[in-house]
Amino acid sequence: MGKLTAKQLQKQKLINSQEYTILVTLRKLTKPVSNRALVSLVSMPINVVTPRMNSLRRKLLVEPAGRVYDQETNRTVQVWTA
User: Fold this and answer.
1) Are 34 and 62 in contact (CB under 8 A)?
2) Domain enclosing residue 36, as ranges
3) pTM of the model
4) In this predicted model, what pLDDT tens digit does every residue of 12-64 receive, in sequence order?
5) Is 36 part of any domain?
6) pLDDT tier at 1 (50, 70, 90 boundaries)?
7) What CATH code is carried by the domain that includes residue 27?
8) Position 3 in a domain
């Protein structure tokens, strides 16, 4: 069985609309991205994006792709890929 599309996952009620938006965005990207970078891409606040990423990770739909330094927060942050 191949990988389900985000639309199929949403139709089967395996992901909600916010998770759908994030997953579609991640799958379109060619490079891994942090939660903070996703905020501007999906027009959602960080306190919405972070829990959805945790949920998508538990469902094995996204995976960590390393860590990068975030100059704005002066911290090393996780980047994700789908």
Assistant:
1) no
2) 10-81
3) 0.86
4) 788 888 999 999 999 999 999 999 999 999 999 999 999 999 999 999 999 99
5) yes
6) very low
7) 1.10.10.10
8) no
Task: State the amino acid at position 73 in one-letter form.
Answer: T
Length of the chain (residues): 82
Q: How many CB atoms lie within 10 A of CB 51?
A: 13
The one-character DSSP state at 62 is: S
Higher pLDDT, 32 or 1: 32
Question: Is 15 part of any domain?
Answer: yes
In the DSSP assignment, the letter for residue 20 is: H
| AA identity, residue 54 | N
Contact call for residues 6 and 15 (beta carbons, < 8 A): yes
Strands 75-81 and 63-70: antiparallel
